[in-house]
Design goal:
By secondary structure, the chain is of the alpha/beta class. It contains 26 helices and 17 strands. Strands 9, 10, 11, 12, 13, 14, 15, 16 and 17 form a 9-stranded mixed β-sheet that branches. It has an 8-stranded mixed β-sheet with strand order 1-8-7-3-4-5-6-2. The two termini are about 15 Å apart. The structure holds phosphoenolpyruvate and magnesium ion.
C-alpha cells in the first residue's frame, strides 16, 4: 500500500532502450546540506570533535583495506585504492583538519570541506601540468569518503562493497566513466537512472555500449527515490517510475517481455551481411571502448571495429600508460577481432572525457593537438600501435583534425618511431585516417583526402561545432540536431569527396547508428557505418529490407527541405510508414497503455 502512496513518474531522456525493474540502489553524492557548526563547550568539545574525525579516518582506511583484500580487483584499481589510502592517512592532511577543528572550533565536516578547498586552490594555482586533474580527482574521492563517514550515511564510498544481491537499478546524480564500467559488470544490475542530462556526452556513449536500459535527465530523482524500495526504468518512453504499484509492475514485466521479444527478432540474422534488396552493400561496424567488447560486437553482427576510443580506457589511470600497456591492449584487440579490421583512434582527451589526464574542455586543446603537445603521453601510444600492427588489419584514426600539417606531422612521427623500433615493415599494414568533426576539416576535406586512406565522420562533434552548441547541453538540445539541413549537406559533400579521391568513408558518430538515417546514408552513397553494438541489428534490418533507389529518392526530397523541423518531420514520417515493424511509435504507445 505504501508503494501506491508514493508512486511517482519522472520524465527524462531515453538513452538506452529496454525496461529494467528492481530495487532502488542509490548513490547520494550531494553534500550541499552539510552542517557548518561552531562548537560549544570549549577545548573539551574541540578535542572530542577531533577524535570523531580521527575515528572517521580510521573507518575509511579500514574500508579501503577491506575492499583491496576482499575483492578481486584489477591491478589498476588496486593501485588507485592504495594511493587513496595513503593520501587519507597522510599526516599533513589529517593534521591540517585536526588543527582546523582545534583552532577554529568548527565541526569536523566543515573542517574537512575548508581544508580540501584550500588544497584544491593551492593545486590549481601551482601551474601543475595535465596531472593536476588527477590529483584534484583523488582529493575529491578522499573528501567524499570522509564526509560520508562523518555523516554516517551510505554513499559512494561504500557502494562497491555493498551492492545488492538481487535485481537493482542504479540511481545517482551522475557517475564517473570508471564507476559506471565497474558497476555495470555486476550481475544484478538491471538499469540505470541518473539526474544528469545525457545529450551526446561520453557518459551516454558508454551507457549505450553497456546496453542496460538507461534514462538520464531525471530531475529530482534522488529526492523521489529516498525511502522507496523499487523503481522501473523505461528506456522506451524515457521515464522512471518510482515506487511502482503492483499493477504497474505487472504491466512493465509484460512490456519488458514484449520488447525483449521484439529485439530478439533482429538478432536472428545479424551475422548476415547488410545488402539491400537491389544489391547495395552497407558495411556495419562497432564503436567500442575496450577489447572486452569485441565479442559483444560480433554477437550483434559487427563486420569491423570502426572506432576504438582509446582515451576512455585510460581515463582513470594513475600513471601515463607505457608502450607495453598500449601494445598489450591493441594486440589483444586485433587478436580477438581477427579477421575484422580494427580502427584505433589515438587519444582524444578533452571535451567531457578528461579523467586523470587533463586537457582543456571542448575547445582548443583536444585530440591530435593534445597528442602533439604531450609526446610523453602520445609516443608510447604510437609505438604500441606500430608494434601491434604486425597482426594486420589496423587503421589509425586521428581525432580533431583541423589542418593538413597535422596529418603530415603524424605520418612523420609514425615513420620516425617505426625506424627507432626497427619495425618499418609494420607500416605497410597501417592505414591512416582523419576524423572529420570540425568545420575547418569540412572545408579542407579535398586537401585532407589527398593525405589519408580514409575519413571517419564524427557527427557528435561535427554537429557540436557546426551548430555552436555543446553536445551534452540539455537546455539547448533543440540546436543539437542531426536533422539540420547543414548536417545533411556536410555529409553529402564528404561522401562525394571520398568517392572522388577513392578513399574510405565511414560515419562513426551517434548519427551513424540512428535508424532514421540509414536509407539516407545509402542514398548518399555512403557504404560504411560504425555504431554502438546494440544499434547494429536494427540498422542491418533496414538496409536488408530497403532499396538503394528509394534511399536516393529520399535524399533528393530531403535536400529540398529548408528547415530542421521540416526535414525531421518528413524523414520520421517516411521511415515510420516505410518500416512500421521497426519504428514502433504505435507499438510503444500500445504497450504504454497497458503499462499505465
Ligand atoms: C564524434 O565526435 O562523433 C565521435 C565519434 O567521437 P567522440 O564522440 O568520441 O568525440
Ligand atoms: Mg569526436
Amino acid at each position: 500500500m505504501t508503494a501506491e502512496r508514493h508512486m511517482t513518474r519522472l520524465s527524462g531522456e531515453k538513452i538506452v532502450e529496454g525496461i529494467g525493474l528492481g530495487k532502488v540502489f542509490f548513490i547520494d553524492k550531494d553534500f550541499s546540506l552539510i552542517p557548518h557548526l561552531t562548537l560549544r563547550g570549549g577545548q573539551k568539545a574541540r578535542e572530542k570533535e577531533k577524535r570523531r574525525f580521527m575515528n572517521a579516518v580510521k573507518k575509511c582506511e579500514k574500508e579501503l583495506t577491506a575492499i583491496m583484500e576482499e575483492r578481486e580487483l584489477p591491478k589498476e584499481a588496486l593501485s588507485i585504492l592504495e594511493a587513496h589510502r595513503m593520501m587519507l592517512v597522510d599526516p599533513t592532511l589529517t593534521g591540517g583538519i585536526g588543527d582546523a577543528i582545534l583552532e577554529k572550533g568548527i565541526n569536523a565536516e566543515w573542517a574537512v570541506l575548508s581544508v580540501f578547498e584550500e588544497m584544491a586552490e593551492r593545486l590549481a594555482g601551482s601551474g601543475a601540468d595535465y596531472y593536476l586533474k588527477a590529483k584534484a580527482a583523488d582529493l575529491e574521492v578522499i573528501k567524499d569518503k570522509l564526509l560520508i563517514s562523518l555523516l554516517g550515511g551510505m554513499g559512494h564510498a561504500s557502494y562497491i562493497k555493498d551492492l545488492p544481491e538481487e535485481d537493482f537499478i542504479l540511481c545517482a546524480h551522475s557517475l564517473t566513466l570508471s564507476d559506471l564500467s565497474s558497476l555495470a559488470k555486476n550481475k544484478h544490475i538491471r538499469g540505470i537512472a541518473l539526474e544528469v542530462p545525457g545529450g551526446v556526452s561520453h557518459l551516454t556513449i558508454v551507457l549505450r555500449s553497456i546496453g542496460l536500459p538507461a534514462v538520464l535527465g531525471l530531475d529530482g530523482l534522488l529526492t523521489e527515490v529516498a525511502g522507496c524500495e523499487e523503481i522501473v526504468v523505461d528506456g522506451l518512453s524515457g521515464e522512471a517510475v518510482v515506487c511502482p504499484t503492483m499493477t504497474q509492475k505487472i504491466a512493465y514485466i509484460q512490456k519488458k517481455k514484449v520488447y525483449d521479444e521484439y529485439f530478439e527478432r533482429f538478432l536472428t540474422d545479424v551475422g548476415d551481411p547488410a545488402i539491400s534488396q537491389d544489391g547495395a552493400r552497407m558495411h556495419i561496424g562497432a564503436n567500442i571502448e575496450g577489447e572486452e567488447e569485441v565479442e559483444l560486437s560480433k554477437r550483434y553482427g559487427a563486420e569491423f571495429i570502426g572506432l576504438f576510443r582509446t582515451e576512455l580506457m585510460f581515463l582513470e589511470k594513475e600513471e601515463i600508460p607505457t608502450e607495453d600497456d598500449h601494445y598489450a591492449v591493441y594486440y589483444e584487440m586485433l587478436h580477438r577481432a581477427h579477421p575484422m579490421e580494427v580502427t584505433i583512434r589515438v587519444f582524444d582527451f578533452g571535451g567531457d572525457k578528461e579523467g586523470r589526464i587533463h586537457a582543456t574542455g571542448a575547445m582548443g586543446l583536444r585530440g591530435i593537438r593534445f597528442c602533439f603537445l604531450y609526446p610523453d603521453v602520445f609516443l608510447p601510444q604510437v609505438r604500441g600501435l606500430i608494434r601491434a600492427a604486425s597482426l594486420g588489419n589496423l587503421s589509425i584514426l586521428l581525432p580533431f583534425v583541423s589542418a593538413v600539417d597535422e596529418i603530415r606531422e603524424f605520418k612523420a612521427i609514425l615513420k620516425e618511431q617505426a625506424k627507432d623500433l626497427k619495425l618499418e615493415k609494420n607500416l605497410k599494414h597501417i592505414k591512416v585516417g582523419a576524423m572529420i568533426e570540425l568545420p575547418a576539416a569540412l572545408f579542407i576535406a579535398e586537401m585532407l583526402a589527398r593525405e589519408v586512406d580514409f575519413f571517419s565522420i564524427g557527427t557528435n562533434d561535427l554537429v557540436q561545432y557546426l551548430m555552436a552548441v555543446e553536445r551534452q547541453d540539455k537546455a539547448l538540445s533543440q540546436y543539437f540536431s542531426h536533422f539540420h539541413p547543414a548536417v545533411l549537406r556536410a555529409l553529402y559533400n564528404l561522401s562525394h569527396i571520398a568517392k572522388k579521391y577513392k578513399i574510405g568513408l565511414s560515419v562513426c558518430g551517434e548519427m551513424g547508428g540512428d535508424p532514421y538515417f540509414t536509407l539516407l546514408f545509402m542514398g548518399m552513397g555512403i557504404t560504411s557505418l560504425s555504431m554502438s553494438p546494440i544499434a547494429i541489428p536494427i540498422v542491418k534490418k533496414i538496409v536488408r529490407s530497403g532499396y538503394l533507389e528509394e534511399g536516393k529518392a529520399l535524399l533528393n526530397r530531403m535536400l529540398m527541405t529548408t528547415s530542421e523541423m521540416e526535414l525531421r518531420e518528413i524523414l520520421e514520417r517516411e521511415m515510420e510508414e516505410r518500416y512500421p515493424n521497426i519504428f514502433r511509435k504505435a507499438w510503444i504507445d500500445n504497450i504504454r497503455k497497458n503499462g499505465d
